[in-house]
Structure formats: C-alpha cells, structure tokens
Amino acid sequence: MQLKQLANISAALAAASCALLGQQAQAGTVLDDWQFNSAILLYNETDRVSAGEAILTARGDFGDDKFLNLGLVVDALTGASATGAVAQPYVQSFTRPSGRGSYDVAPGVIPLDDTFHDTRVQLDASWEQSLAPNWRVSGGGHLSKEYDYLSMGLNGSLARDFNQKNTTVSLGLGYSHDTISPEGGIAAPFAPMLLRPDFADDNSYQAAFDTTRDRADDTKDTLDVLFGLTQVINRDWLMQFNYSLSMADGYMTDPFKLVSVVNANGEVQQNLYENRPDQRTKHSLYWQNKLHVRGSYLDASYRYMWDDWELTSHTADVKWRLPMGDSWYVEPQFRYYQQSAAEFYQPFMLQAEPLPQYVSADYRIGKMNTYTVGAKFGTKLAQGNELSFRIALYQQTPENDGITAPGVLAEVELYEKVTAVMAQLSYSF
C-alpha cells in the first residue's frame, strides 16, 4: 500500500467530516478537529506466509464530548500455508482445494500449498458520546471482505464513571455474521482429497470431485460480551480488569485443511478434509497495568483464555517506554504465549482406528508456545505529531502432546517451528 493512497484517504475523511458538520470551512480548519493514525505493517515467515497491511484510523471531535471514529484496513497475504498433511520420506502429490491444479512436495518436507494469496479490505465506524453525567455510550459496525470471506458486524458499549472518575465500569456487546465461500465449494466432512491421475479423464475426475463437495458456502454467527473495570490506583498507576465471553455458532472448519490417514508404518494412505465442531464458547480474563516509573512508562498485561474445545492459553506481554532525550523514546517489548491442544487435534489418524466425530491437524490449535521480542522507536514532531518504527522477531514452536509417531513418521518433522520478522512504520497527525 502506498503512502499516496493513505494521503488520498485522509483527504476523503476530511471532506466527509465537512459534510457531517454542515460547515463550509477550509480543510485545514476541519483537520484541527481530527486525529489521524496511519501505519504500514510488513510480516514475513521463513519460507511461508508474507503479509503487507496498511491501516488508517481517524477520530473526529464534534464537541460536547461527541466523537466519530473511522477506520480502514487493507492487507494482502501470499506465500505457502501448511495443509495439515504430514511429511513423508518420498514425494507426495496434492490437489489444490479448488479442485483445479496440483503440486508435489519433496521428501521429508511438511506439505505447504504455495499458491496461498488473498486481499482483504475492512471498514470500521463508530460514534461515541456522553449519555448523562458520568455515563458514556458508543455504537458502530464493521465490514470486512476478502476473496472467499465476508464479515459484517455491529458493536456497542456503555460505561459508567464512579469515585470522581477514578473508577470506570463498562459493558460491551458485539455481533458478527460471516459468510465463507471457498473456491470449489465446501468439502463434506472427511471427504477424501482426489488426484487427477487416478481418473481416466477430466470429466470423470470432475464428477468424482463434485461428490466430495457438501455445499457452495456456509455462515457463522458470533456474539461477544465484555465486562470491564478500570481503576486509577494513584497518579502513576492505572489498572484494568476484563472478562470476555464469545459464543460462535456455524461453520468453523477450515475448508483448506487436511488430515493424513497413515498405516502402522506411518505411510499415508489418503488425505481427508478436516471436520470441526459447529459451536465454540470462549472465556477470557485480562489484567493490565500501566505505570509511570521515573519518567518511563511500563505496560504489563496477562490474559488467560479457556473454551469448550478444551483449548487453554496464557499470554504475558510487557512493554517499557524509555525516554531518549527530549523527543525520542525506545519501547522494548517481550510477549510470551502458551496454549494447550484442542480436544480433537490430531497430527494424523491411524488407518486401523475408526473415524472420530471431529478432527483437525491444524497446528494452530495444537499444543505450542510462542514468543515475540521487539522494540519500537519513536519521536515527537511538530504540532504533536508522532513518527515511530517497530521491529520484532516472532518464534512459534508447536509441541508433541504425547502422540507416538509410527514407522516413517518418526523420521520426519511433524512439529516444525515457524519464525517470522515484523516491521511497522506508524505516523500520527
């Protein structure tokens, strides 16, 4: 995404604010009532996915404690994505999820679909204002569209200040409706991945492929509830507690993921499309502390999540902003994440065992731990503007959850580490 495009968006937001205010003011006058934040993010995994993202948010002050918030996100992803199938000591062939085209994977290499690519555009808008003394309310919505996924949602919150505004209690609600329309349709649960060479001609292959499709698309609905408590401890210490509940119902299977069925020697007999439950309830507790320490600012948080898929996670995140002279600062960051495996996660299935009701070999819901180490460098510019640059290293380590690999699977990598580098350039004005 080019900075010129961001500049055009900023001009469009300024023009929109003129219309909303009903004023015939110059653009510079309108911009005095707006705060803009822009960022460009680059993300690159070693030999896997790469992503680029442009973000622009705007906050307009309409007076009387009324604010309009607007957001635009454009991102593009490309590269190789893990299919869920296991590596083998020989060349493997795979059909792409759409049913069109195939690719080969070298011996000992975890199967990756190297044609993964997508572009997403997301729009957000919300309005917030005082409802009464010590009461604030907000409401908004979002729209996100990518090639095979559409998400629409509404959200709102209510907050009440107590104790001379040193204590705030809040309630937030959000609802989203998603439509999933993968190219080639949605595979039936445990449908086999077919290979074109196994059929006499294209017509017979296509006829067999069509029988593995269950429907063209499906939907998912998610309701989120958040209860929050923010407390000013003293002039140098702010603390926040949140409890959130998320209830999802609908299609939650990844239409592109496979599970390998292996014999007693660990050799793949076939690859089946995964199947996940169509309901999920998640709970999380979040605790954050922001402290002013001798001219520096410490931000430390912890999050615990659990759900009815028996997946639990712990997240600890620490940032420490340290001044460097009058206008520069550096902010080191360390983030650690650890999760257990979902109850239906299996890196492979044994041919001799019956099919389970649900199964997924997606390492993202398997046992793992990750860490992120990085630093942000920023400076204050004229008129309160800010420019910053962030660089970080991300390491993801999937782990064996006590599963014994039979035969040849003991000789190949089943839990490959993922390393990524992230860089972000931000400008606030």
TrEMBL record:
Q: Which domain of life is it from?
A: Bacteria
Question: Which InterPro entries is this protein grouped with?
Answer: DUF3570 (IPR021953), Porin_dom_sf (IPR023614)
Keyword field = Signal
As recorded in UniProt, coiled-coil segments are none
Q: Where is the signal peptide?
A: 1-27
Q: Does the keyword Signal apply?
A: yes
Q: What is this protein called?
A: DUF3570 domain-containing protein
